[in-house]
Write a structure and sequence with these properties.
By secondary structure, this protein is α+β, with helices and mostly antiparallel strands. Helices cover 15% and strands 32% of the residues. A 6-stranded antiparallel sheet has the order 1-7-4-9-3-2. It is globular, with a radius of gyration of 17 Å.
Length: 182
């Protein structure tokens, strides 16, 4: 009997090491400057995404985890979009996916989503299973500050309500696989 694998979903996760040249506090300071005049009642879209330019330190974060991914995979990751999710106390993210099928150039659809928890107390990211046997179940991946979690962009996910008095700031990067490593 032969086996054909119809789909495979992987979740990668880990912490940014303190020996890295990325200055976590510098990212928080840089981000704080971007939020000075931000009106929380006027989020950019219904998912509460805030488009942000990528700073040098954030680029290093994405490169660090992209390089870790490339070690065990025959692809490199090409960035498509960067934004932040900002949640005040009791705010949560909606259940969503970043893989948009209709009306989108297939060359610009993301393959992977990477969340980096910039400012966050402990919590869980929930990612729904996509197979018929576990349709109403999910992976529960713990997070706290400095943790990154990356998964297939077509999987539905959500963050629970922020129960802390401080803002929860999560940086999100969307990436495409490029079959040719450089």
């Amino acid at each position: 009997m032969n086996e054909i694998i119809l789909s495979k979903n992987s979740v990668f996760h880990g912490y940014l090491p303190t020996i890295s040249h990325v200055d976590h506090e510098e990212i928080i300071k840089w981000f704080g400057e971007k939020l000075k005049d931000f009106e929380f009642s006027e989020k950019e879209n219904r998912f509460m995404d805030l488009e942000v330019p990528c700073s040098q330190h954030m680029q290093w974060v994405y490169e660090y985890f992209g390089d870790k991914y490339s070690i065990s995979n025959p692809y490199c990751l090409v960035p498509l979009r960067f934004f932040a999710l900002i949640h005040k106390k009791h705010e949560t993210s909606q259940r969503r996916t970043y893989f948009i099928k209709n009306g989108t150039d297939p060359n610009k659809m993301p393959d992977y989503t990477l969340m980096y928890f910039l400012k966050a107390k402990e919590g869980n990211l929930y990612i729904d299973y996509d197979n018929h046997r576990n349709k109403h179940d999910h992976w529960k991946i713990p997070f706290k500050e400095r943790k990154a979690i990356m998964w297939d962009s077509d999987l539905v996910h959500y963050l629970p309500p922020n129960m802390d008095d401080e803002l929860r700031i999560t940086m999100v990067g969307l990436f495409q696989r490029d079959a040719f490593k450089t």
